[in-house]
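Spend some time on this chain, tokens included, and walk me through the fold:

. . .
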Amino acid sequence: KVSKALLAGTERQGLTSSNSCHPTRSVMDSVVDINEGKAGVGGKVQMKDLRVVIATACFHVVDGVTITLRKIIRRLKARGAKVLVLTAPPPGGVAEPLTVHVESVPLLSCCVGQGDYHMGVKAGEEALLAMEKFQPHVVHCTTPDFACYAIGVWAREHNIPVMGTWHSNIHDYALHWGTISTVIRPLIVLYIQHFYYALGTTYVPSEIMRKKMIKEGFESKAHGNKLEVWGRGVDCDKFNPNKRDEAWRTRMGFSPDDVVVLWVGRCVVEKRPDVYIQVMRNLTKLYPQRKDNNLKVRGVVCGRGDFYKKMTSIPNVQGVGWLTAEELPRVYASCDILCFPSRVETFGNVTLEGMASGLPVIAADCCSSHLVESGHNGYAIKGMDFSGYQEAIVTLMEDKKLRQQMGINGRKRAVRDFEVDAVMDQMVEHYIEVANNPPFKPKAFILNVILFPIAMLLWWPYMGIYQAGRLGPKEWVGILMFVFVMVVYLYGGDEQNEGPTDYSWIIGVCLATGAQLSGALAKVLFKSYWQYKVRWKQLAISAVSYVCIIIINPIMGLSAYSFAAQSLLAPLSILNLVWNAVLASLILKEKLSKANMVAYLLICSGCCMTSYFGIHEHKSFTYDELMGLFLEPMFLVFLVVEAIVATVGANIAWVGEKQYPPWVVRIAYGCLGGMLGGNQFLSKSLSEMISTALKTDVAIILRPGSLMLIAGTVFVLISGLRMLQKGLKFYTAMSLVPIYQGFFTITMVASALVFFKEYEQFTANMAQAYTFALLLIFGGISQLQPPETDVELETRKQGDHMA
């Protein structure tokens, strides 16, 4: 069977993975010996006999998923049931009692924001033997990884009911993974859909989430699976306003009048730490400590992740890291407001804990509106802009009675509707119900045919990225040099090195290099423009920038076109990146990170290859020939495609981060500016037209076609740069300019191939090398670091993020 490939692959080859960790004692010694007979056979299953296998990814990680699972496990044991947990090993590999480890690999920190998460890849022999001995009545899958899928296959083969719970919107996390998510997210959605189709019943945290999942196709009438609601609970004795500790506040340096805004959770991009950062920085400026004003905002960050250091570097914000189960309730109760802007929550355990602790909660409406009633126990904020959170916090800061009343209302709601034992008893009854019903029979053939290839499409690229991520800059340089040499060796030859015997194209290359230097200087100065508040300094910098970009750059660029083909010169525009990195470090004091260094290497390598395999023969055109090229059908199709892409990009840039993730807006600015500026066929045509006019008739310059050509050249040049300048107001030069330059280069190459029909001179080998080079360029773009928000941006007025 196809599903065997994801089952016990280690039965044949042994547990040899370096990522597999084992308990220090035999796992079979830790599993309760059961002698009541085959699982699920012989009458109704009673609570005292119930045996449940829970398959999860990272039982050792402190997050909402494991907290929920530990609650249900405690409740099961309290009612006499037995539980076996199958999970990835923790650091050190020592198993907790009654847990067995599956084979796993670490998840990339770029996916989850911290490095202690693992993904199960195989059930493994040890886990299969443990389940054979445990003889469960129910198998509960909590994570859609490959190990849980294999465990579900084993259960179905042994006629054991399988059920699932939904804890994380993994497919929505992918929206924050940069350019690569455009390709990988549809595969993730398809895989997860079919994973849950096989489980029969999946319990989701809320009715809002159930409707969202049905809309996204996770319930299928064709497969017969269904989604049902099982909420979450909170220990209202543990999370209690009575645990407020004034001594703790004093040790933290808080005065009685300070209003403390709390963050709890992983400090990773999908949790929207940027909202907390912007709000706290703004509030620190709005409420400075003065003699006539005792009101002061303070912040506490409880958690960890990529953004932890940045969050705790804000004035008046302190970090406490991860806390124990005993310390966390005290911190909740000792703060005054909970800010929880995450938009990827399935329920909102943090929101519920804050309510139980007597705090007013300010959270995203898309995830917490079932818990937070705006104006009653907090505020449910719509949209992605930070201003709503800031206004809500200001309202609560300035009205102590309102703040306290909202906290009381939230506490009452938590005690009334979300008492933990009652909620957990609901799940215990679900276990009994599933165990006493016939196992769900999925359409195994269809599932295997779909799941197996999708799993492979996700698995092999992931392992390639995982291994590549462990390489350092030196290894990357060596690999790129090796690849470059091999491609030159395989595809190099006389057929692509044909050109004029006088090597005039070298002059064109030198002129183009100088043009790129002046262009890079202009772009860096555009960025420095926003760092000055004095108007005359802004005008001076703007004047120098436009002289470089409108006078020096075009003159050298147009001159270069008189000596070389556009497809040869196009990749040289990537030298902008080299100059940009150097000048941004010197003028703007920006740091070049390792991730960006790898991105620059990939992009530059791709562009050097396109230059090597470019057309070295320069062809001249008359005025009439140039005008005829504008009416070619292929060129008209090219213009239509460009117009569609430009319209989409302009819409995203106009709406901004109110509706789209930051990385989408950043790419929109870079794409739109690069596409407009990359239409260098107009500059090449203008150069040819001027050359023809000087040789034959100067009056050619005054013809309608020539005037339109001049106007078009100026328009694409200025509009592309203006779009880049607007983007640089919001994002750093090192994160935006490479995207701009990548699309600039690709548009420049494509327009040359289409407009001047340079594709006719390409051989098969040259075309293959060009394709590989373009993949390198886009690979470099996908490696760029996420955009950074400038300090001055955080004080902009609401709705100011517009093109």
The first strand starts at residue 51 and ends at 55. The longest helix spans residues 535-561. Confidence is low (pLDDT under 50) at residues 1-42, 109-113, 493-501, 786-803.
